[in-house]
Design goal:
The chain has about 425 residues and is of the alpha/beta class. The chain has eight helices and 28 strands. The chain has three domains: about 190 residues, FAD/NAD(P)-binding domain, CATH 3.50.50; about 130 residues, 3-Layer(bba) Sandwich (FAD/NAD(P)-binding domain); about 90 residues, Immunoglobulin-like (Sandwich). Strand 15 and strand 16 form a beta hairpin. Helix 1 packs across helix 7 and helix 3 crosses helix 4.
Amino acid sequence: MEYHDIVIIGGGPAGLAAAVSAYDAGCRDVLVIERDERLGGILNQCIHNGFGLHTFKEELTGPEYAERYIRQAEERGIKYMLRTIVADVSPEREILYVNRDEGAVRVKAGAIVLAMGCRERPRGALGIHGYRPAGIYTAGTAQRLMNIEGYMVGREVVILGSGDIGLIMARRMTLEGAKVKVVAELMPYSGGLKRNIVQCLDDYGIPLRLSHTVTKIHGKRRVEGVTISEVGPDRRPLPGTEEFYSCDTLLLSCGLIPENELSKQAGITLSRVTGGPEVDDGLETSAEGVFACGNVLHVHDLVDFVSEEAARAGRNAAAWVAEGGSDRGGELPVTAENGVTYTVPQRIRTDAHDEKITVRFRVNGVYRDKYVAVRSGGAEIKRLKRRIMAPGEMEELTLTGEDLGKCAGGITVGLED
């Protein structure tokens, strides 16, 4: 059986950043496995700018951002495999991959970094009444068809969901000459970044209808239109609020789901909230020597944060291999409450007091002038004021060794007045 010190599954921004970081931490035997025909992942189809402001201190397009990391990996001689599917991962860190040239091959890894990214929620998960005509795409599929394959997917467009990909595609299709009639969002707030709402909708006069959803798709062979209805507080359509929009294309931007089928095969504990693995402050999952980062862990708003998180996973994986494993020791559970949807990590090692630990989280609504309170055993550990928080933007806080020294049991993160 072939052996590698670290095997990274996924060659997108998370996988590349983890590989470069692991190499720089001293691990020279790193293998990246990517199922696509090129490295870079989803960034290859994101031809708009806005990437890299945190990481490289300049504004880049998606392919430019990916190229920076691809170049770093190639300069270090990091081995990677393309057009290769990982079919199985065992709790013992054995990997089965398949490709056209080698067939099925088993690999033993000293440590594994999961960086498979996420996928879009499909039409079948939404339960919209109507036939299954041509002209219905997820926003990411439409983006790939237009930006990589060179196909125009439609001329009159309705977009369901206000995730960042949907907002960006509203602008992209408008620039290509299509008419984007409306963006409908089920929730009373947008799921995307504020800057994308301004730059992609407001600047082009595209209406955003909050608390609205598509209740019927018209047409058998091709989409001919959709019915949009207002929804109440229970997210159910309100009778009498139906509006018909003629269109030939419906784009779906209704959320992202971490790709964790391989994580399940490895017996890794998954979060019921994020859909990704539960990890400690070192980004190690419940399976020893298996780390997770990027959108397979939880959906990020900026790729810069993906790279930052992945670099930490790569360093920790390299340290794990160098030390021949590590004793987990004691852990403090981290729990979300009072308006906080989830936290990453979900547990913090009790021996991590000499480190600064970044805790990322999201809130479940739009909040103004609130405090983020960190408590342990009823005592307040930290209190931070935030002017505004929204579900579309990821929040973070830093815990120091001094903060952790005050903890007397589990840690909770919640909002307070």
